[in-house]
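As a warm-up, study this chain.
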Amino acid sequence: MARKTKEDAERTYHQLLDAATRLFIRQGVAKTTLSEIAKEAQMTRGAIYWHFDNKDAVIMALWNRNANRLQQAFNEMLSEIAPPTPAENFRVAIKRMVLSVVQDPELGQIMRIVMHNMEFTDEQTELQSFLMNKKEEFYSTMENAFVALDGMGVLRTNLPPEKLASSLMSYIHGLIHSSLSPGMRNIDLQKDGEILLDLFLDALLVEYDRSAE
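Now compare it with the structure written out below.
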């Protein structure tokens, strides 16, 4: 019985997150209440308050469910950059990470919610601290990768790794933000993502010359 109860609680948890996703995208985070999420999931108010204290907790749970696995995989890919093709490995990792936003529906949903359907204020809330920590983790991984690439002599620029990490993160953010914008899309990541990433990365990376073998 205990096992069945645990499985039911897990199922309810994910149904509530799925319902929250639909409402956040449809009407925004600010206009959505926990009671509405419960109703959308065809659950009682007690069910959602059992799992979540507030909407911030719902968004953090969505991030942990939908985005963490990608960030962990990205961190692993960048930590394994090594000769003979470090620049190529870095390029592949960046492309996989960015294109997964349009290829993985759950990831695309949480990115759209964070970028377009919630408000950020000057108040440092628990949610904003949570998202900032995720951003800092991503930045740190990127900066370390540029340090490694610089050490292997495959960068075309003398800019410091922190500047390269910041600029690439800003470029990626712009691509994803535009791609996920409601209504007309200025950028189609599925169609043009690799080309647009190459446009930026070609200016940074010295590729391995296979013809020299």
